[in-house]
Design a protein that fits this description.
Strand content: under 5%
Structural class: mainly alpha
Distance between the termini: 22 Å
Number of helices: 7
Length: about 200
């Protein structure tokens, strides 16, 4: 079970890293706001440093609290950092803040399920939350033009699928029941991933 969980975790973070790179490509002003020398440096800062998913410019916020910053009008920092680090911190919380899992580690399938729902909510916010000017806070998918680019949707789908599948595997193996929560995504609130 531990190797299965680690494999799913690696896939989730590989997708988040790719999403960070794609978001920075569509929103280069964001990595510049963070004072990074390049897009690559901005992505490396998020995924290759030991920071426990806490960044000073996110005002000590982690997980869903950091995601909220990406869509606040009064936040002047790197919105991609807030969004992706928030997703990363929330996901790590669902994995008990461990990147190396052992047989006796007890992952909560409800936390993983809730994390998947939170990713769905975050994706909706990414695609719909606008600044007072009417522009999206962060550009992602491109629906207009001769070719539709939905690569963000596909990558977020992988994250959601990995979290959901692992939740189901663990629930089945441990004979636990996952409480399914259904919300209207437009008015949904983030679900807790730590109980």
């Amino acid at each position: 079970m531990d190797r299965v969980a680690e494999a799913h975790q690696r896939e989730v973070f590989a997708s988040l890293k790719l999403l960070a790179e794609k978001l920075y490509r569509r929103n280069p002003r964001e990595w510049r706001k963070g004072g990074q020398a390049s897009l690559e440096a901005a992505v490396a800062r998020i995924f290759e440093a030991n920071h426990e998913w806490k960044f000073a410019e996110l005002e000590g916020r982690r997980g869903t609290d950091a995601i909220h910053l990406a869509f606040r009008e009064d936040f002047a920092g790197d919105r991609v950092l807030a969004f992706v680090a928030g997703l990363g911190g929330m996901t790590m919380t669902a994995f008990n803040d461990k990147s190396e899992l052992f047989l006796l580690d007890d992952l909560d399938p409800q936390a993983l399920f809730n994390a998947a729902r939170n990713v769905e909510i975050a994706v909706w916010k990414l695609s719909n939350a606008t600044a007072p000017s009417g522009e999206l806070w962060l550009l992602s998918n491109e629906g207009a033009g001769p070719v539709r680019n939905l690569s963000f949707e596909r990558e977020f789908g992988k994250v959601i699928g990995n979290l959901d599948l692992l939740s189901k595997i663990i629930a089945d193996k441990t004979n636990r029941i996952v409480a399914k929560v259904f919300q209207n995504v437009a008015t949904a609130i983030f679900l807790p991933v730590k109980f």
